[in-house]
Amino acid sequence: MGGMSTSGDDLETGQGRVRPIVTVGDPVLSTPCKPVTEFGDELRQLVADMFATMYAAPGVGLAANQIGVDLAVFVIDCPDSQNDSLVGHCVNPQLEVLGDDRELELDDEGCLSIPGPYTDVPRLKRVAVTGVDWSGAPVRLEGYGRAARCLQHETDHLVGYLYVDRLPAKQRRLVLKEYEQLHAQSS
Which among 48, 74, 129, 135 has the fewest CB atoms less than 10 Å away? Predict the structure, then answer.
């Protein structure tokens, strides 16, 4: 299943406003997000704001806690290694490995909440995420390669993990040191 668009609402190009992105060290990034229980216009606006923020950054995915909202929601617009770009959003996502394929792919990864450094992170090559959209309708997003990496990265955010949490301690320290040096220079 290639790119999936958001139920004809064009949330990804709609009336969202750009919100500030929370950076590493903020507790909202290391706390599991709450499941969404209320659907409708307020959630639709959050998704539109998340798309606007992701595009302005620019990025290929964004989780709600990255803009300080403690809800299990992410947006994605990421190139897929086998299909067109994967575009959509998912509320209360559940990650699943497709088939028996547990092959890992090592590729560089970065994060809007740790702006600057990139490093190689092992991820599954092919995954799917199931959940619902802003209205509560079922959603299934499948990704291969880069898009699978993005789906895993965003679902990690929603359980309180950053990509650096998947790294060995020494590599994690080096990435965070690089981020701190870049941040100190720009302050």
Answer: 135
Helical segments of 57-168, H only: 146-158
Comparing C-alpha atoms, which of 135, 23, 27, 3 is closest to residue 73?
A: 135
Residue 90 and residue 96: Cα distance in Å, rounded? 14
Residue with tokens 């994060």: 111
Residue type, 102: R
pLDDT tens digits along 47-106: 999 999 999 999 999 999 999 999 999 999 998 878 789 999 999 999 998 877 688 889
End-to-end CA distance of the chain: 43
Give the DSSP per-residue string, 56-84. Answer: HTT-SEEEGGGGT--BSEEEEEE--SSSS
Please give the positions annotated as active site: 154
Q: Is 104 helix (H, G, I), strand (E, B) or coil?
A: strand
Here the tokens at position 166 are 């998947």
Cα three-residue angle 108-19-155, rounded to 5 degrees: 40
Q: How many residues does the chain have?
A: 187
Using one digit for the tens of pLDDT, what is the confidence trace for 125-135?
Answer: 999 999 999 99
